[in-house]
Amino acid sequence: MNNELKFLIETVKSASELITPEFEVKSKGTFGDLVTNFDLEIEKFIISKMKKEYPTFDIISEEFNTNGSLTDNCFVIDPIDGTINFANGLPLWGIQVACVKNGETCAAVIYLPKLSTLYYADETGAYCNDKPIKVNSLSPERSLYVVDGLDKMAAMVRMKRFSQHARDIWSEAVIHSWVADGKLGGVVFKGNSYWDYVPGQFIVKMAGGYIYNEPYVHIAANSKEFADILLKNAGNFENDIALTTND
């Protein structure tokens, strides 16, 4: 376990202790999007730790540093991924962070407190609660998959020819963790927020999975075969926009 991973695990676990049963919920941004006081408090806590331990590293985060781009040395933070689930009492949410060093992601952590699971990865592989994990080897027609983000309904309609097994979970932290440990076969995230996909993609990659990125299409899957199917049928962002506009 490298030093960056040790630091991230310790920081995320400490940050999770800030959460209590009582919290405040507010609307933010687009219709239906929510933020809680813990999104803000956890992010502030994690940022303070990172600035103290790695003062020269840049930070990209959901609440306070949303406009940054990945640099050669930076951290990526999502303080609560799945805030709507969290705010409604569903356990499918998590804290996720990643470290990019010398231009390469070198460590990532996803902690799902209500599920008592800690996923993490470095150059040695991917782990859940200290046990090595691997993606599954199921064929595309047998695999569960998720399309999340912008205009996902049209994408799932096109995917029905290849798989009837779409799921809707509303947390990239949970989804990517479950691809990494074999519960899901793949995920397409249709958006461009680094904090949603950078930590999870690294864990999937180190669990033996395949990842693919282009603007607004970010895929993590158990194989290149499934990733190609997801890209062709669920990753056509421009076509989804056209279908939505014509509805």
Q: What brief labels describe this structure?
A:
247 residues; alpha+beta; seven-stranded mixed beta sheet; disordered C terminus; Fructose-1,6-Bisphosphatase, Chain A, domain 1; D-Maltodextrin-Binding Protein, domain 2; five-stranded mixed beta sheet; 8 helices; globular; 2 domains
Describe, in plain words, how this protein is organized in 3D.
Strand 10 (145-149), helix 4 (152-159) and strand 11 form a beta-alpha-beta unit. This protein starts with a helix and ends with a helix. The relative contact order is 0.13. Helix 1 (3-16) runs antiparallel to helix 2, helix 4 (152-159) packs across helix 7 and helix 5 packs parallel to helix 6 (194-206). The protein has two domains: 3-132, Fructose-1,6-Bisphosphatase, subunit A, domain 1 (Fructose-1,6-Bisphosphatase, Chain A, domain 1, 2-Layer Sandwich), CATH 3.30.540; 145-246, D-Maltodextrin-Binding Protein, domain 2. The strands form three sheets. The chain has a seven-stranded mixed β-sheet with strand order 3-4-5-6-7-8-9, sandwiched between helices. Residues 240-247 have low confidence and may be disordered. The chain has 247 residues and is α+β, with helices and mostly antiparallel strands. The chain contains eight helices and 14 strands.
